[in-house]
Amino acid sequence: MMSSTVRIFVTGGTFDKEYNERDGSLFFKDTHLHEMLQLGRCRVPVEVRTLMMVDSLEMDDEDRELILQQCRKSDADRIVITHGTDTMAVTARRLGEAGLPGKTVVLTGAMIPFAFGSSDGLFNLGAALAFAQSLPPGVYVAMNGRCFDWDNVRKNKAIGEFEALAG
Amino acid sequence: MMSSTVRIFVTGGTFDKEYNERDGSLFFKDTHLHEMLQLGRCRVPVEVRTLMMVDSLEMDDEDRELILQQCRKSDADRIVITHGTDTMAVTARRLGEAGLPGKTVVLTGAMIPFAFGSSDGLFNLGAALAFAQSLPPGVYVAMNGRCFDWDNVRKNKAIGEFEALAG
Amino acid sequence: MMSSTVRIFVTGGTFDKEYNERDGSLFFKDTHLHEMLQLGRCRVPVEVRTLMMVDSLEMDDEDRELILQQCRKSDADRIVITHGTDTMAVTARRLGEAGLPGKTVVLTGAMIPFAFGSSDGLFNLGAALAFAQSLPPGVYVAMNGRCFDWDNVRKNKAIGEFEALAG
Amino acid sequence: MMSSTVRIFVTGGTFDKEYNERDGSLFFKDTHLHEMLQLGRCRVPVEVRTLMMVDSLEMDDEDRELILQQCRKSDADRIVITHGTDTMAVTARRLGEAGLPGKTVVLTGAMIPFAFGSSDGLFNLGAALAFAQSLPPGVYVAMNGRCFDWDNVRKNKAIGEFEALAG
User: What is the largest CA-CA distance in chain A?
Assistant: First the structure.
């Protein structure tokens, strides 16, 4: 199948949270993406770039504009964005409404930090990379093994899962 | 996107190897598929069925015939097969040559048992489920984050990775 | 060697912190002690009792009085207390000054939650149980593989390790 | 408490078994001891030396003689030996009968390789280091959180646990 390079943009989120043993808080240090790709023995040609390292609740319009511009400027037609789950659907909508012609963009994240043994991160990353390689151009959210169009997805915070909008 | 049920057939392989603490050997007990789907917080409707629990080096023609018949008989159009890596390409070829019209069949496995902390299994399962949902009918091998057509894949045993046939 | 029952009192601390995937905070649910003892294949006769589930920074005099009374009332001569690291030395001093004649009491904890893959908790629990079985009566802190007398220990917060008081 | 250097002799055993992804076998590469001590945030001064890397079923008289001589020659009064469980009691007896005056020697191991997520190794190492620091001179086996004298221990292979000889 297709083996053009996949661009991975890192923006932070639960994916990359670390435990701070000094004060017992959670914080961001470096991304775990490289470690995760190695664990998955990934041989898809990828280029990883960290755009920011933030909790998605703290992401503002400017941050989303930056992500959009980076997607636009990228040579890659296949893009994965790691992102906090709380506002993942908001960023997806921003990118979808702006439009990224010819590009397949997949946002993904994790409910549990990768540094925890029990993270869903590795599963989600595998799925996101697969969707990014196989789906037609568009903006998608890949969580829970499923893939949603940007205009038909929300996080159900009560159960901690993503779902299509009612209708 | 599509949310029809995905059928998962378990055949064993490294994926499901356990450590036997009595004699220090590796063996098969039950599949880890359910545990892995739970860890990945998978909400794709799946039906898991164990067809056999064997090392793929010990799989014979009869075993492959059984897998083929199970794929044929299944109502599902989307099928994932967990399989040992050593003869994964052989089974893919058997299914591909026989033909499974209208069905998307994805074989996957792991280089390291899931019971080991450092397994690639969760990454591969996420990717396989995503490819099974998004690719057109055909028989594929999903490993190393990539997806190969059944007639263009082999395991490179020297480096422990899957690759397209030379050409 | 000795195989009288060891009483384990759980008071919370980093040991037992969980990740709350709803809001990204850390919280206490149930203790991981049983799971840890099972993982360690512990066959020391133990009785586990949860006294409280608190961050040790929030522990007050009343909490420490409760711990003291529970140690006094316990039939067991060998006691392990799991405790947050921040005020472990404070509680050890409280117990040591009050005096617990005939009892070997060992406080231990973890710098990283057990639920994280990379926790020091299992190592510390193994050491604490061993010290509790082998040391003469007294109150001790067991961290970093070492064991300190209650009146000669402090947490060096800058480096996150326990050390003897300067002499 | 005592903080003289503890000598750690590595002899192999389940502790250090790795999964060979080429052929699905288990094998020895390097010891995990340094990694385990780091995970446990151990600050006991230790010196680690690998004497051999063998399955304890393949250990012969000559190997045991070597271990004995290394214990004799060591400056350290506190010694931990990592060892396969199958003949751990045999080696303990060899050392105990030969006699190592003034030295506290503790043999330990694991039922599950450390490289597996679910290993008892870290718990056992914590306990062994604690017993080595706190017990009087003698030769001991530390497994299952317990400590046995060299002349009163056997592995119960049916249940995979260590126990005192019937009496």
Answer: 48
Query: Chain B within 8 Å of D112 (Cβ-Cβ)?
Result: yes
Q: In what order do the strands lie in the sheet with A6-12?
A: A46-54, A6-12, A78-82, A104-108, A138-143, A146-149
- Catalytic, A14? Answer yes
| Alpha-carbon span B107 to C78, nearest angstrom | 55
**ipTM above 0.90?**
yes
E-strand ranges in chain B read 6-12, 17-20, 25-28, 46-54, 78-82, 104-108, 138-143, 146-149, 154-156, 161-163
The rounded distance, in Å, linking the Cα atoms of C114 and C122 is 8
Chain C touched by A117 (CB under 8 Å): yes
User: How many CB atoms are closer than 10 A to CB A151?
Assistant: 13
Distances (CA, A) of B64 to B58, B68, C111: 11, 6, 51
**pLDDT tens-digit readout, B117-143:** 779 999 999 999 999 999 999 999 999
> Per-residue pLDDT tens for A59-101?
999 999 999 999 999 999 999 999 999 999 999 999 999 999 9
Per-residue pLDDT, C20: 87
Give which of A122, A129, A135, A141 to mutate to test B binding, by max B Cβ within 10 Å.
A122
